[in-house]
Amino acid sequence: FSFRLFPLREHGMNWRARPLTCQEIQAFRKSKEVMDRFVRAYKLMLGFYGINLVNEETGELERAENWRERFENLNRFSHNNLRITRILKCLGEMGYEDYQVHLVKFFLTETLVEETLPNVKRSALDYFLFTVRNKEKRRELVHYAWQHFKPQSSFVWGPRDKLQKYR
């Protein structure tokens, strides 16, 4: 069998890697060793993307020192967006829903506010955002995206009347 660093309950691009079962997910989540390795793998990938995990408890993130070089890589190679989507989905499977929220907000900020990752914007809005399992947090992120999207009138990820009323 071929295994992935961020396994899911669905098939990915590697046809030899089999999807996880619910029982395997539960076993992983109960193992401190497996979960510690998972967080180490997450930090490794974040580093590759130019991001640091500031707080393991909350999932808070910041740009790494080498962010300019790494963001250039993210902008140039769109296959990274598939990997990020996979990581986000896996974070949800492994019970790291707060990590999902911070990673999506990081990408929304970098694409919509800072405008450092223009080639990641579509994926952040079309895919990353909708991996967030917590409905209320996902709604907050959609509102955040709407607030910073330019032009706001072209935002199509929610009804404008509800977005304007959302608090």
Structural overview:
With 167 residues, this protein is mainly alpha-helical. It has one domain. Helix content is 57%, strand content 4%. It has helices at 22-30, 32-49, 67-76, 79-93, 97-113, 121-126, 135-148, 160-165; strands at residues 51-53, 61-63. A two-stranded antiparallel ribbon has the order 1-2. Strand 1 (51-53) and strand 2 (61-63) form a beta hairpin. The radius of gyration is 16 Å and the shape is globular. The N and C termini lie far apart (48 Å). The model has no long low-confidence stretch (mean pLDDT 91). InterPro entries: OGF_rcpt (IPR006757), OGFr (IPR039574). Belongs to the opioid growth factor receptor family.
**N-to-C order of helices and strands:** HHEEHHHHHH
Low-confidence stretches: none
**Secondary-structure content class:** mainly alpha
Which outline best applies?
globular
Count the E strands.
Answer: 2
Helix percent reads 55-70%
Q: How far apart, in Å, are the first and last alpha carbons? A: 48 Å
What order do the strands of the largest sheet run in, or round the barrel if closed?
1-2
Total domains: 1
Summarize the structure.
By secondary structure, the chain is mainly α.
Structural topology:
Blueprint (H helix, E strand, L loop, with lengths): L21 H9 L1 H18 L1 E3 L7 E3 L3 H10 L2 H15 L3 H17 L7 H6 L8 H14 L11 H6 L2
Antiparallel strand pairs: 1-2
Keywords:
167 residues, mainly alpha, two-stranded antiparallel sheet, 2 strands
